[in-house]
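Hello,

Our lab assistant flagged a job as stuck in the queue for most of the afternoon. It eventually completed. Since we weren't sure the result was trustworthy after the delay, we are filing this so someone can double-check. Below is the sequence as submitted and the structure that was eventually returned. Let us know if re-running is recommended.
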Amino acid sequence: MKKPVSTDELRRLIDVVELQLCMVPDWKYEDRDSWGRHDAGLSKMVDHLIERERGRFGKLRMDDRFMTLAGIRTTCTSGLHGLFTNWINAAKREIAARQDDAP
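-- returned structure --
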């Protein structure tokens, strides 16, 4: 069994994911090309997290995706943006749980 990452490392990874997510171009319904830029930005995030942070990604079924980073696994049916947001929230809950368990 792998040793859990430290709370400081978890905070660093939250910062990494939040910063990368902020850099993904927005998309607008009326601008079809913006979706391609948005999707490419999310794909770059996946590549970065796999190559530099040892993240794992995959699909469960049609639109169900999963992500594991720092021992925290999340799923989402609404795409990569939702998957990253779910992971951030799960990581923050993990930090809060660690603080609640501290003596």
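-- support follow-up --
The delay was a queue issue, not a problem with the job. The result is valid. The chain has one domain: 7-101. Residues 7-101 form one domain.
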